[in-house]
């Protein structure tokens, strides 16, 4: 059964055919990829580090990038350069916004993860197709710990995860900066994602929560079939349908890489793992011209790579499309957001926006 979520991206074949685009700032090209990059040349460390959203299309970076504010004034969004679990990025459930999280701290702020939220607010961001960014501060949680992920159904309210606070909900209406608890156990979480019609899922690798769980009514419950014993290292994940799920695992052993899970008689079952050097931490899924699932991913390792995988079975191979430079590590990948209803023609994107992503 397919989800009724809005389809959001072009097929892989169309993505590769899109022109490289221009180097001036402006609307991104629908169907291209966005890479969240942490930049702290010459090396990445625990200081507050620049976050840049880089557009990738036609096999190259287009130069049409968006750097988040890391200056001395205004609300900032920076991340820890050396905290590889940070910088996860999602599309909102309606496909219109990229969402991610960080710190309201100027570039170079020391030991950013150890700061208290009262001193350094945490921040969740939404960015639309036109590169319009909204930064929403959090003043009461994820203190002295990582903030890793933010997700939204519509770019207006958010769920966020990190290393010490479970799942927290933020409604920034009227400038509100305080959160509510959506689930307090486990406290240490990686990626949050609204999927399958605004259901909230999270990934973790802690205690008995080893894989993907669903959050319902204040309780986090591991999906049946995922292991409760230490071993897996799940990060990003994405449902293609209600019975097919891909999981990024950053282990460098044969168990790590791109995992394909299917729901069989009510139990999620690992079908196979497609090996990716240094494992995977972020994925974005579409289909190619032949109807195969096409997965773009960001690997782990010292110099993370952008890779693509056409899933034709257990023997499928990963192709490296680009590799991070020293001091400029890729952290996540997603598709360019879709335009707001009624704006496609104005942006010259009507034809592109009609292409659909399978979920």
Largest sheet: 6 strands, antiparallel
C-alpha-based Rg, rounded? 19 Å
Estimate nothing, just give the exact number of structural domains.
1
CATH topology: Neuraminidase
N-to-C series of helices and strands: HEEEEEEEEEEEEEEEEEEEEEEEEEEH
Number of strands: 26
| Parts with pLDDT < 50 across at least 5 consecutive residues | 1-24, 345-359
The CATH C-level class name: Mainly Beta
* N-to-C CA distance: 10 Å
Helix content: under 10%
Number of helices: 2
Secondary structure class reads mainly beta
Shape: globular
Name the beta content range.
35-45%
**How does CATH name the architecture?**
6 Propeller
Outline the structure in words.
The chain is mostly beta strands. The protein has one domain (12-354): 6 Propeller (Neuraminidase), CATH 2.120.10.30. The protein has 2 helices and 26 strands. A hairpin with a 6-residue loop joins strand 6 (90-91) and strand 7. It is globular and about 50 Å long.
Descriptive key words:
42% strand; Neuraminidase; single chain; disordered C terminus; disordered N terminus; 359 residues; mainly beta; 6-stranded antiparallel β-sheet; 4-stranded antiparallel β-sheet; 2 helices; globular
Layout of helices and strands:
Layout: H1 12-17, E1 33-39, E2 48-57, E3 60-61, E4 66-67, E5 79-80, E6 90-91, E7 98-103, E8 122-127, E9 133-138, E10 147-151, E11 158-162, E12 167-170, E13 179-183, E14 192-195, E15 199-206, E16 209-216, E17 219-222, E18 234-241, E19 244-249, E20 257-264, E21 267-274, E22 280-287, E23 293-299, E24 305-311, E25 318-323, E26 328-335, H2 350-354
Antiparallel strand pairs: 1-2, 1-26, 2-3, 2-4, 2-5, 6-7, 7-8, 8-9, 10-11, 11-12, 12-13, 14-15, 15-16, 16-17, 18-19, 19-20, 20-21, 22-23, 23-24, 24-25
């Amino acid at each position: 059964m397919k989800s009724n979520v809005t389809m959001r991206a072009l097929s892989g074949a169309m993505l590769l055919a899109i022109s490289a685009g221009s180097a001036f700032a402006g609307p991104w090209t629908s169907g291209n990829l966005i890479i969240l990059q942490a930049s702290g040349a010459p090396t990445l460390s625990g200081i507050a580090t620049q976050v840049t959203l880089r557009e990738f299309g036609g096999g190259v970076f287009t130069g049409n990038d968006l750097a988040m504010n890391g200056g001395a004034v205004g609300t900032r969004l920076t991340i820890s350069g050396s905290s590889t679990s940070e910088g996860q990025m999602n599309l909102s459930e309606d496909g219109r916004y990229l969402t991610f999280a960080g710190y309201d701290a100027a570039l170079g702020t020391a030991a950013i993860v150890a700061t208290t939220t009262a001193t350094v607010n945490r921040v969740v961001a939404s960015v639309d197709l036109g590169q319009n960014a909204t930064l929403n501060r959090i003043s009461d949680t994820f203190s002295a710990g990582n903030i890793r992920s933010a997700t939204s159904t519509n770019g207006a309210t958010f769920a966020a995860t990190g290393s010490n606070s479970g799942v927290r909900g933020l409604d920034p209406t009227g400038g509100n900066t305080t959160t509510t608890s959506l689930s307090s156990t486990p406290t240490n979480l990686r990626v949050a994602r609204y999927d399958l019609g605004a259901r909230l899922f999270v990934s973790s690798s802690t205690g008995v929560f080893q894989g993907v769980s669903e959050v319902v009514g204040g309780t986090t419950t591991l999906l049946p079939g995922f292991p409760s014993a230490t071993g897996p290292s799940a990060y990003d994940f994405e449902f293609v349908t209600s019975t097919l799920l891909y999981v990024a695992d950053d282990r460098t052993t044969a168990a790590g890489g791109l995992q394909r899970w299917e729901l069989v008689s009510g139990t999620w079952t690992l079908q196979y793992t497609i090996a990716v050097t240094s494992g995977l931490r972020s994925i974005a899924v579409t289909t190619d011209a032949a109807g195969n699932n096409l997965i773009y991913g960001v690997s782990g390792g010292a110099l993370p790579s952008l890779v693509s995988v056409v899933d034709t079975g257990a023997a499928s191979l990963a192709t490296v499309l680009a590799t991070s430079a020293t001091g400029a590590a890729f952290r996540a990948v997603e598709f360019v957001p879709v335009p707001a209803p009624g704006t496609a023609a104005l942006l010259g994107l009507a034809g592109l926006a009609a292409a659909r992503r399978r979920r």
